[in-house]
Amino acid sequence: MTRFSKFTALFLLAAVPFLDLPDYYMHVLILILIWGFVYTGWSIMGRFGLVSLGHGAFLGIGGYTVGMLWNFYGITPWLGIPIALILATIVALIVGYPCFQFRIIGHYFALVTLALAEVVRLVIIGMRDYTGGSLGMTPQRYGEGMSVYAFQFVEKDYFYVIVLLSWVFGIWVWNLVDGSMARYSMEAISDDEDASASVGINVTREKLKITILSAWLTAFGGVLYGQYQMYLNPDTIAGISVSLQIVFASIVGGMYVALGPTVGAVITILLSESLRILVGVELAGLDGTIYGIMLILFIIFLPRGILGSGWAKPLEILRFPKDKPG
Amino acid sequence: MIFDIFLVEAIINGILFGGVLALLALGLNLVFGVVDVVWICYAELVMVGMYSIYWGNNHFGLPLVICVVIAIFAVALLGFLIHFLVIRPILGTPPINQLLVTGGLLFFMQSLATLLFTGDFRNLGLHLPVLELAEMYISFSRLIAFVTALLAMVALYMFLKRTYLGAAIRAISQDREVVVLMGVNPQRVYLVASALGGGLAGLGAALLILQYDVHPLIGISFGPITFMICVLGGLGNMIGGFIAAFVMSQLISLGGFFLETEWGYVIAFVFFIIMMFIRPQGLFGNRS
Fold first, then answer.
1. Inter-chain contact A51–B260, Cβ cutoff 8 Å?
2. b/e string for A157-168 if b means 16 or more Cβ within 10 A?
């Protein structure tokens, strides 16, 4: 993808609010960008074989920290976001450090992170006096619901701009990692930990760096989701379901390519939304059924995802130049 | 008060719950130990079993016992098909792919259940008696589940110890390279183990439907705890998994007694995470 086409694409995306699209289309676009951002955040570590099934934990921490600080102490999300990121860092360190130190990899790592996601979900449910438990909670509306101070934008156009900026930032971070030394050490680590350690790579530190970065993006994605929907629910924002959703959409899109996770978000959201319009709500579960079959076929036949696979030549234009040597 | 009757009741219920968890973990462990694949969708197999019992009993009016037998065979067939159609093509790829592909199956089965049966909670409408023992209330269905789980475990143990196929299964979980030299066809053993694992999920379903309503998301409430029990006991180690099931069920039951059910699960999961750091090979595994 050339610099020119990149800027054209960005320009087109930035022009969307001026098109005066119906709210529903804006809603779908915002959802795609939020989830695209979250999936990108996950794939930053997922592409190096650190398959976390627990990113729902960070999503939940982000959304609930900001929402609860706002509801109970009136702390603006501008302060709440850094606090949420600090909390996400602490959780990533508590679980990540021992995991990496004790060489918990592969499906053991996946299962430990899965436990983490469930712990966060159950803690949210267990603290039902404060969080509303399974019923979820609603961040209190500030005035008319349009306020920079409260990070609430009832107008979809405004939220779109914020989400678009965040998404561009996410892609930028992805590319930054892609072109950094961290990528080379992480690739070495995912190939052979002992050999990488022997050439002087600090395995635990490199993995932690990537994990924390990924946790930050995901937690911020949780904040965006919460502030956009103005409703938080432990089952949709924490726990194993959403964690698996993150992993699978990234795989479908292709986690080894910058735009892959976003393509995953486009496919999954368009699939469920279009089926909902075409078939209606009576056939609830049809989207998931198709999606499940798609996932199985993808993992068997196209483990590198849509964008990551060689046959997807027509889509090649969406790929960023792979890497510059050195 | 030193001797609290409710505490004893919680402990007993924990033990009974542990029996069912042990049975579920046993099936998953069998598949893991033999095929070396974690079936993330294992609890969804249980859900399929529960729905087939519900459907057979409620829709076709078949006697419960026949429904149970049908469910066990149906889920065993499903386990066989999962291995044959989904796992076998990617056996040579990184293990995490095999774990993820069963995650795709999880979505598939969950959504298909929603599509076919909607999200409603359904039960058999059975009213099993509650036993009263020295002022403690113990559910009869839990007792049945516990006893059946124990019997099934003994039967599986005998199968593994006494039959040729059982010996092949044990051999393959010890060394999958050498076993080929001994004239065992691993592909066949994989299929048998997958079908057996499925059958155990079907039996688990029969025991769970006595106590719980079935709905498409029920797998989410049993899945994670089952994987954790397997890992805790040392993946592939059946005796370890058996003991770990009772440890976890006690944590849940006692946590639920002193706090609330969710906190019981939180304690169990945190215990799992910490144990993974201290003994990554599992409570009873040997470091390899």
1. no
2. bebbebbbebbe
Instruction: Examine residue B285 and state whether it is found in any structural domain, yes or no.
Output: no
Burial level of A135, CB count in 10 A (0-12/13-18/19+)? exposed
Residue ranges per structural domain of chain A? 28-253
Range of the domain at B176: 5-278
The answer to whether the CB atoms of B227 and A299 lie below 8 A apart is no
Distance CA B215, CA B201 (A): 16
Q: Do A285 and B115 touch (CB under 8 A)?
A: yes
Residue A284, token pair as written in the block:
């609830």
Contact call for residues A115 and B224 (beta carbons, < 8 A): yes
For chain A, say whether B109 makes contact (Cβ under 8 Å): yes
Which helix (H) or strand (E) segment is B131 a member of? strand B130-133
Contacts of B111 in chain A (CB under 8 A): 285-289, 291-292
How far is residue B44's CA from residue B50's CA, in Å, rounded to a whole number?
A: 10
Q: Chain B: residue nearest A53 by CA?
A: B100
In tens, the pLDDT along B92-133 reads: 777 777 888 888 898 899 888 888 887 778 877 777 777 776
Among residues B230, B232, B226, B246, the alpha carbon closest in space to that of B276 is found at B232
Contact (Cβ atoms closer than 8 angstroms) between residue B68 and residue B56: no
Domain membership flag for residue B287: no
| Contact flag A291-B111 (C-beta cutoff 8 Å) | yes
Handedness of CA A216, A250, A188, A310 (dihedral sign): negative
Chain B CA closest to residue A115: B269
Give the pLDDT of residue B281: 67
The residue to which tokens 């992805």 are assigned: A174
Q: What is the band of B3 on the pLDDT scale with cuts at 50, 70, 90?
A: low
pLDDT along chain A (326 residues), means of 10: 76 80 88 94 89 90 92 88 94 90 82 89 86 82 77 82 92 89 84 84 88 94 91 86 87 84 89 80 78 84 71 49 40
- Among B residues 267-286, those touching chain A with beta carbons less than 8 Å apart: 269-270, 272-273, 276-277, 280
**Interface predicted TM-score (ipTM):** 0.82
What is the reported pLDDT for A61?
A: 93
The enclosing domain of B94 has a CATH number of 1.10.3470
Q: Is B213 helix (H, G, I), strand (E, B) or coil?
A: coil
Any domain includes B80: yes
**Scanning every residue of chain B, which has its alpha carbon at the shortest distance from the alpha carbon of A250?**
B100
Q: For residue A295, give the chain B residue with the closest CA.
A: B104
Note the residue count of chain A: 326
